[in-house]
Predict the 3D structure of the following.
Amino acid sequence: MPKTVVVPSPSPLAGVKRALYRSPAVRYLYARARSPLDRREGDRLFTNGRDYVRALYRKDEDPTVLHTRDGLDIAIRQNRWDAEIVREIFFRRPYTRRTSVGASPVVVDIGGYIGDFTLYAVRYLGAARVVVCEPTLENFDVLRRNVTLNGYEDRVTALNVAVGAPGELTLFVQTDAAGEIHASSQWYRDQPPRTVPSVPLAELLDTHGVERIDLLKVDCEGGEYAILADAPDDVLERTENVVFEYHEVDGFQPMLTKIVDRLTAAGFTLHRDGHIISATRDEPIAA
């Protein structure tokens, strides 16, 4: 079966864009240009849309809770990254755009950050169960708070671990005073290393009794290659949808090609939207 995804070349502008956005002047001009759109966006979903917009552009050490108009509470730190993640999950919806899950799906969320996609999966996908992994303690604390705020403890298994090689994983974590957290095993190597517990995907599923995955979502800043390229056959055989964000770490192209080939051979059709790759089964797996 031919692949429907072409592995891209590294983006020559990615580093330039990151450097530009670090400039206070650029951020200010961008905020002025987007502000009316952001206000309309925030007011459409949240009863306190102004808090959402404030977090997008103003850093503050005090956290806040966003309240959706249909009753979901989302605790965030008032920094651009937390607010941008909320924007991505609740407005752009990249992990559900091309997937189709049935009633009461089982979701595995690798790279759970503050629980944003986990909340989305329970509330809007009707997930019967979510197993979510987030290795960074600062993010995990907010994730756990979000689960509790919404009374989802009976449907969410939240784990403060990385997924990958067995034993331990070294992370490099970049943070600031407003709690903006960026963690990766590949980037931010100018930061002090942290050692976090790590578990292979197959072991994670077996330990927590996950016999079928309706949606496997992976966003872990370069860790996706180690997780997906060598996922055991029996894990893929019991998975209906895989959606992951790929990151342009050093030498990413052959690793991404390996994942694309692996998923295609396992009976998935793949689509790429920017840096998001969605893999859906050609034939549904047996119940």
